Amino acid sequence: MSETADRVKKIVVEHLGVEAEKVTEDASFIDDLGADSLDIVELVMAFEEEFGVEIPDDAAEKIATVKDAIDYIDSKQ
Amino acid sequence: MRRVVVTGLGMVSPLGGDVETTWKNIIASKSGAATITRFDPTDYKCRIACEVKPKDHEYGYDPGLDVDHKIQRQVDLFIVFGISAASQALRDAGLDNMSEEERLRAGCSIGSGIGGLPGIESESLVLANKGPSRVSPHFVHGRLINLISGQVSIKYGLMGPNHAVVTACSTGAHSIGDAARMIAMDDADVMLAGGAESAICPIGIAGFAQARALSTNFNDTPEKASRPYDVNRDGFVMGEGAGVVVLEEYEHARKRGAKIYAEVIGYGLSGDAYHVTAPHPEGSGGFRSMQMALKKSGLSLDDIDYVNAHGTSTPLGDELELGAVKRLFGDHLSTMSMSSTKSAIGHLLGGAGAVESIFCILAMRDGIVPPTLNLDEPSESCKGVDLVPHVAKERKVRAVLNNSFGFGGTNASLIMKAI
């Protein structure tokens, strides 16, 4: 597992209060992890802080799974 | 008019994470006051408060019992306290698993005096230091006062009236009184009613201290600071927590064989129309509020055995309330007891009227009235009034009066009786 993946999963566990095992790369934030649209806004903000990247709204809208987030962050670093 | 009874109790306080732990500590004359831990109070005039204790404390509170981790992160503490107290009250009433039909007739009236002040303060700093794009998307609905009622209604599917009172330190009492009327007027059969507060944050302590409302002479002996009616009192001690009761239409409760704690029989409200923070110099607002509640109750003064006073430990407020109580009770003063439980848990502001109504109910249930702590040297005007100094007192309690008065000159009085 990449370092990005580890840090992303840690943020997801902390923000959504879900068990770490549930945060697989395929997991959908809304369908599998119980997030709503505002939770995703908050997660995106946390990713921006953690990785020092900017995730514009149109890119944020396309982040549906844990893998989507990891891939986007990796592509910007 | 439909009769309204209390069938469930829930509480989070500086002396316990639930009703029975708090009550046991109140009766044992414990104090919840200590040096503030939420922030470094070194530079503040007032450095003490009655904080709700962490879960590893002897009488601490575990938010995880009833509030999801995610919600705890998103909302201010007053909402977390409120959800916990409401959950306890519903379970106590045996109503945490109602049918859809019942839930259509069940609502919430849980308010707060100030709301999410700590979160408003901290997010303002985020805005100032990091800019608007770093403000939490949960900022607004995590701070709004009606979001205890909102969160609780979602958690338990309560589709009846959804309401929240905001009347400063009278909030808890108004919430119960207003909700009882909703049931009496047939808007609902069941209402969760009460109040919550958590404003122990830098701007909250600084603001109340600047208004000259807080005690500042007892920073080195915090447990001595809240001393209603004592000559050395010098302001209130900020508390935090929540109190919620389940109110239920009498026949509804009787038919399902519910445990009935008390009946809400009198509710009075008034305005001082005088000053934003100082009470009316003749205590006339409080007097009229009590008088209205008494008239509605149909009781005579002889029937009221216990008064849980507003008694915040401020020099002016205590004196004026005492004067109003003496005028109202007249010759009947000698048979009743009156105390201020703020001496033990501090002033819960919007939560005060609700937790104090619960103490009144428990006084009737157990035949014991809670003490006024630190009443070492009663002021001159205390003569002839049993203020239950230092230790709890066993006595029969048939009916109770609870007073709450708030900034803006808003007054509420509740009368309940055992049935």
From TrEMBL, chain A:
Pathway entry: Lipid metabolism; fatty acid biosynthesis; Glycolipid biosynthesis; KDO(2)-lipid A biosynthesis
Primary location: cytoplasm
Biological processes per GO annotation: Kdo2-lipid A biosynthetic process; lipid A biosynthetic process
Ribonucleoprotein as UniProt keyword: no
PROSITE patterns the record matches: CARRIER, PHOSPHOPANTETHEINE
HAMAP family: Acyl_carrier
GO molecular function, one term: acyl binding
Xref: Pfam families: PP-binding
Species classification: Bacteria, Pseudomonadati, Pseudomonadota, Alphaproteobacteria, Sphingomonadales
Keyword set, alphabetical order: Cytoplasm, Fatty acid biosynthesis, Fatty acid metabolism, Lipid biosynthesis, Lipid metabolism, Phosphopantetheine, Phosphoprotein
PTM entry text: 4'-phosphopantetheine is transferred from CoA to a specific serine of apo-ACP by acpS. 4'-phosphopantetheine is transferred from CoA to a specific serine of apo-ACP by AcpS. This modification is essential for activity because fatty acids are bound in thioester linkage to the sulfhydryl of the prosthetic group.
Protein's name in the database: Acyl carrier protein
Function as written in the Swiss-Prot or TrEMBL entry: Carrier of the growing fatty acid chain in fatty acid biosynthesis.
Species assigned in the record: Sphingobium herbicidovorans (strain ATCC 700291 / DSM 11019 / CCUG 56400 / KCTC 2939 / LMG 18315 / NBRC 16415 / MH)
PANTHER family: ACYL CARRIER PROTEIN, CARRIER DOMAIN-CONTAINING PROTEIN
Domain Carrier: 2-77
Automatic annotation (TrEMBL), chain B:
Active-site residues (renumbered): 169
Known pathway: Lipid metabolism; fatty acid biosynthesis
GO biological process terms on file: fatty acid biosynthetic process
Catalytic activity: a fatty acyl-[ACP] + malonyl-[ACP] + H(+) = a 3-oxoacyl-[ACP] + holo-[ACP] + CO2; (9Z)-hexadecenoyl-[ACP] + malonyl-[ACP] + H(+) = 3-oxo-(11Z)-octadecenoyl-[ACP] + holo-[ACP] + CO2
Entry-linked SUPFAM superfamilies: Thiolase-like
GO cellular component term of the entry, any: cytosol
Keyword check for Transferase: yes
Gene3D superfamilies: 3.40.47.10
Gene Ontology MF, one: 3-oxoacyl-[acyl-carrier-protein] synthase activity
Transmembrane parts of this sequence: none
Domain Ketosynthase family 3 (KS3): 1-418
Signal peptide: none
The protein, known as: 3-oxoacyl-[acyl-carrier-protein] synthase 2
